[in-house]
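User: Could you check the structure of this?
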Amino acid sequence: MTPLLTFSYWFSLSPQPFQPIVERVLLAVFAVMAIAGIACYLVPLKRGMDKGIKRALLRLGALLTWSGILALCLWFFSWQAIPMLSMRALYLPIAVWIVWGIVLIARSVWVDLPAQRKAEAERMERERWLPKKSR
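Assistant: Sure, the predicted structure tokens are below.
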């Protein structure tokens, strides 16, 4: 665990390769992220799905697809031992981007979407009693 806390582990221009099991696990995780992102694009094709949920799934799909593809590129650079592009510090911005994107999507689903539904229900209740336009 102590190598994770050293500067040379994260910012070495030509780091030591990952252990074979770690390399395979990272490849599997990044590939699953990209495939899950594509699947999130395909799920909203169903009709009758709520517009807010559909939008959240599309945002999640974009986040997972692009971060998975970018992480697979970084994994490939590490596998090929390309100097500077195989720095482990390059994984940190991807991790921060994923966490930030998930926080934004979760906030939109659990905070913004219920508030929009409540405002829409109030608007519909108010318009129910307003006079209709005559033709």
